[in-house]
Design a protein that fits this description.
The protein is of the alpha/beta class. The chain folds into three domains: 51 residues, no CATH class; 125 residues, 3-Layer(aba) Sandwich (Ribose 5-phosphate Isomerase B, Chain: A); 104 residues, Orthogonal Bundle (Arc Repressor Mutant, subunit A), CATH 1.10.10. Helix content is 59%, strand content 8%. The chain contains 17 helices and five strands. A five-stranded parallel beta sheet has the order 2-1-3-5-4, sandwiched between helices.
Length: 319
């Protein structure tokens, strides 16, 4: 028991497997000396390996690639990765900005890497690459995916749906995720630390009025210069980015709460519910009410249509 306790304390700060070999000479000696301690080491090493290899992934697809995306996401979650759908479908239809949403998730550091599945893979690559700091590329084999990440700093992998098979896709994705990502030098725009400071300020104050001048003060710049550099860094204006963040926060409330729509509008920084509804429908493709009906676990009670009412009346008359 003393060996197990001391091994547990020692192993808390241990990371590389080579240190295990240096400390014990070989695991076989530990196994002969104390099988219980050996089993503890084996399980701890496996757990640490899983934690070290875990990657935060933003994934999205067009409408045609939805099922393939779902299958791949499930496999990645089973493998221990953290997977977020950057552009979930609305009203059963895929969003047109799915590639851009993955790119923005990577830019904001909401995800370490992105994966896009598309029937228009070249177009998706072009759209993602419009976001500065993002390097997206279409890869059809494991070697290209590995080299793309390790040498070129590819942080968004694009997969073509027409040539996608589950086993082959998993091989390409594993090669991409197992490669150490090369650093990306961002030319122009806001310095990365200042950009992340602006993102954090918007995220923490989304319910308040966020003018461009307020955001410029966060990084100590003039309004004109800040707006210019922000668009160079993100591909969109500060106002557009704030609106998207308000809508994303509203989507969380709509999925997870029964809060009134007017109250949600206020919580995410809109002055009126009509403005909230207009912006939400333009960016998401559905009204807030419709979005809530589709995504809440317990469906809302709906009013029967005229045809349904007539059918019920005919049944009642026949009875």
């Amino acid at each position: 028991m003393h060996l197990i306790a001391s091994t547990r304390r020692w192993f808390r700060g241990l990371r590389p497997t080579t240190q295990v070999a240096q400390y014990f000479q070989s695991l076989s000696e530990v196994r002969r000396y104390d099988p219980t301690a050996f089993e503890l080491l084996r399980r701890t090493m496996f757990r640490k390996e899983m934690e070290d290899n875990k990657v935060q992934i933003a994934i999205a697809s067009d409408e045609a690639g939805h099922e393939a995306k779902q299958r791949l996401a499930a496999k990645l979650i089973t493998a221990g990765h953290e997977v977020t759908d950057a552009a979930p479908p609305v009203q059963g239809q895929g969003r047109t900005d799915y590639a851009e949403q993955v790119a923005l998730s990577v830019l904001r550091h909401d995800a370490e890497r992105g994966i896009i599945i598309s029937s228009r893979a070249v177009g998706a690559s072009v759209a993602a690459n419009r976001v500065p700091g993002v390097r997206a590329a279409l890869c059809g084999d494991a070697h290209s995916a590995h080299v793309g990440a390790k040498i070129e700093g590819m942080n968004v992998l694009v997969l073509a749906l027409h040539s996608l098979q589950d086993d082959h896709a998993r091989e390409v994705v594993d090669a991409y995720l197992n490669a150490t990502l090369a650093p990306i030098e961002v030319v122009g725009g806001l310095p990365p630390r200042r950009l992340q400071r602006v993102f954090a300020h918007i995220r923490e104050n989304v319910a308040r009025g966020l003018s461009v001048s307020d955001l410029a003060q966060v990084v100590g710049m003039s309004q004109y210069y800040f707006s210019k550099l922000f668009k160079m860094s993100t591909g969109i204006t500060p106002h557009q980015y704030v609106m998207r963040q308000r809508v994303e926060r509203a989507q969380e409330h709509l999925r997870e709460s029964r809060m009134a729509l007017a109250e949600i509008a206020t919580q995410v920084g809109f002055e009126t519910q009509s403005h909230f509804t207009s912006v939400f429908r333009r960016l998401v493709g559905a009204t807030p009410k419709r979005y809530r009906e589709m995504h809440q676990a317990s469906p809302l009670v709906s009013v029967p249509s005229q045809e349904q009412q007539q059918a019920e009346e005919r049944k009642a008359t026949a009875a």
